[in-house]
Amino acid sequence: MKYLMLVFAVFGMEVCWGAVGEKNLIAQRELNPKVNIGYKSQDGCSFMYSPIDFCDDRHMEAIRGALKDRAPNFANKFILITIPERDEYNQVSVVAVDSVTAEVYPLPIDSISGVKGKTGKNGDINFKLNENKICIYGDVLIYKSIKERELCFVLEGGRFVGSHTAYMD
Questions:
Q1: Rounded to whole angstroms, how far apart are CA atoms 76 and 70?
Q2: So what's the pLDDT on residue 25?
């Protein structure tokens, strides 16, 4: 009986700690992603003059889903995801989500879509697990202007830097 109680106590505590600790961490990340625009913003959730609200229910649902279901795929600890913006134009926004803190870092663009005959439907997005650099190529929407372009950014100091966009002013 003593042996059974000791096993239960040791393993019970471990199982209880693991389950509660993990669930609390997951719950914290699921409930509290925090958007970090990194540049001038309207309300902390959108770049200045951008129609994209990274804090709305649709964006938060995508971010919470990534935290729950995906492993880091960018800069060792971030989950890089695309979020549909305007399906009829195949436009997606791009954010990096810190898998540990749930901080969200949007690329300083509104959206990217493909260039007919040159890219996939959502444009080309190139990045690596062990690097903090991302390059995009496609029809990029930034501050009411869509242009075919290639832009490269590095995630540094809580924001994307590199190719200049109007949202970085």
A1: 13
A2: 53
- Of how many residues is the chain composed? 169
Closest CA to 150 of 134, 161, 166: 134
Question: Distance of CA 136 to CAs 10, 32, 145, 162, Å?
Answer: 51, 28, 16, 12
Q: What number is the average pLDDT over the span 28-35?
A: 73
3-class SS letters over 73-85: CECCCEEEEEEEE
Mean pLDDT of 49-67: 96
Count of the separate structural domains present in the chain:
2
Mean pLDDT, range 75-81, rounded to an integer = 97
Q: How many CB atoms lie within 10 A of CB 26?
A: 13
Domain that holds residue 14: 1-31
